[in-house]
UniProtKB/TrEMBL annotation:
Listed name of the protein: LacI family transcriptional regulator
Organism name: Lysobacter niastensis
Keyword list, A-Z: DNA-binding, Repressor, Transcription, Transcription regulation
Domain of life: Bacteria
PROSITE patterns named among the record's database cross-references: HTH_LACI_1, HTH_LACI_2
SMART domains assigned: HTH_LACI
Domain annotation HTH lacI-type: ranges: 4-58
InterPro entries in alphabetical order: HTH_LacI (IPR000843), LacI/GalR-like_sensor (IPR046335), Lambda_DNA-bd_dom_sf (IPR010982), Peripla_BP_I (IPR028082)
Lineage: Bacteria, Pseudomonadati, Pseudomonadota, Gammaproteobacteria, Lysobacterales
Amino acid sequence: MANVTIKDVARVAQVSVATVSRALNGHGNVAEEVRNRVFAAARELRYTPHAAARSLSSRRTQTLGVVLPDLHGEFFSELMRGIDQVARENSLHLLVSSYHGHPQEQGAALRAMRGRVDGLLVMSPYMDAPAVLDDSLPLVLINSQCASEGVASLGVDNYGGAFTMVEHLVMGGHRRIAFIAGPSDNFDAHERLRGYRDALARFAPEAEPWVVAGDFDEASGHRAGLVLLEAAHRPEAVFAANDMMALGCLFALAQTGVQVPGDIALAGFDDIPMARYVHPSLTTVRVNIAELGARAARMLIAQVAEGVVVSPRPKALVPELIVRESSAPAWRRRAGPAGS
């Protein structure tokens, strides 16, 4: 039956429109016999409540907004997988937008969400990001230094993860450890660089930091790899600030006949799914990216339901060192055929 309305359901069930509305929305002040009659009428007429009308009455859209710096790459795919899983478990929809790596466009993406979502998940990793706060909407920030008192935020211990990786490489006998950095205006990249520098100073104080610019993508990792190979003395190990750059670097090394880990050890950060399937498999710092998204979504849903900020300052997710084939100890390399 086309264009069935709530009035039609009320007529068939022989109750008022208000009673139909209360029954379908689960209110308790409806007798069980009446509720059953309303549901039977709705099934008979194949009535589906109009989402927009229901939003007007409940002031809820049943939709969460997600604003990310980009949508390209395995990191964001995994993050969205975690968010989407929790949203589906709670019968919620997602409205997703990206500001394409341009912080100045973040405000436009946020404004586009107003009136269309019940709350916002915002990843704002830029050091000089504009204010993202909107008092009218529940908000959870992901991997951001912009969080202030009373604002829910969830992040990763990027500093600790990088520190642990450098310790692993130094304990493996490596001293000339180059670092492929992420964007200079990115908070995650800044913390990983800081962890690299501090760990090198602690565990190999005689070693000089060796930092090559990168941009968190494969192409910049490839370029950095070629730059490192042009040095008079090649690094013993390369630590890339994320796995995408590590994979780009791995390709550059392979192109020039440099073996990993036979000639140069290599490591990344994030543990994207591809990291375990390349050859050699990539040593990295595991961030449970899907769980990061899922946990942020749960925080936002609780905030929407309760109307208050839940756990505004949760403990950062602690990354896990994952040792694979690409970071063999230096002495194992020396025991084999001589490298370049």
